[in-house]
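User: I'm putting together notes for a lab meeting next week and I want to include a structural view of one of the chains we've been expressing. I don't have a solved structure, so I'd like a prediction I can at least talk through. The sequence is below, exactly as it appears in our construct file.
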Amino acid sequence: IYSELKQDGEVQSFDSANLWKHINGADHQYLAYDCKSLTVARFVDQEGNDAVSVEIYEMPDDACGFGVYASMKPESGPFAQYGVEGYLSGNMLNFYKDRFYVQIQDYAEDAVAAKRLPGIATTMSGNIQGSNSLPIQLDRFPNDSAFEHFGYTWDGVMGLKGLGDAFTAELDINGVATKWHFFPSKTGQVLNMVEKAAKRFGGEPFHRSSEGNLLVAEGEMKYKGKMVVLEGKESSLLVTGTGLTDQLKELALKFIK
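Assistant: Thanks for the context. Below is the predicted structure for the 257-residue chain, given as structure tokens.
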């Protein structure tokens, strides 16, 4: 991975069942995205000193690869195109490509690491097969709106087990912070699960209406606040933090089918 380094010892491999042996106490961060395996390699310099360690986490698909990366990265950059995207933080460089999330740690001082890590990341990214683009589902969020902090939830939206495969983003609507959960494949399931959860907390049935081919349901869940569910023929949307507004409706109609 770098001309002045050589591998130290054997490559280590872990699966979801024994991931904790390498990152005890932090494995849940990766299992939350259905991590399948972890590959670890260490490298030394020409004098035999510890130089670099590499961890490659393999997820089931590019959505989960993006999800775990988005959950780890800082809110603001600078970001660079290592793989799809990556960032340098002190003596670490993290990036993701397709279903792989990669962490590279350099044991040298930050100034030395800042020079060495980009080359290592570029080489590794070139060796990883797969898509070099963000998940195509993110294209459904209107790019003429101020959506930010994009992410992905494999399971457990709002703590509800079984409610997942959701691409997320945040949006300020007239000074109100809202969170959008886009479900590209759970038509007919989102409203049912959310309503059942609301009823368990003593909530009222959601008010339903229609907008063209969309079913629109507005309600409130104890401890979670106001929310709106929009269900189309092919996809669904859950917006938390607000009731139904004209701006929300206009945006939703742009990408829910």
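A couple of points you could mention at the meeting. The first strand starts at residue 6 and ends at 7. The helical segments are 28-31, 62-72, 110-127, 190-200, 246-255.

User: Perfect, that's what I needed.
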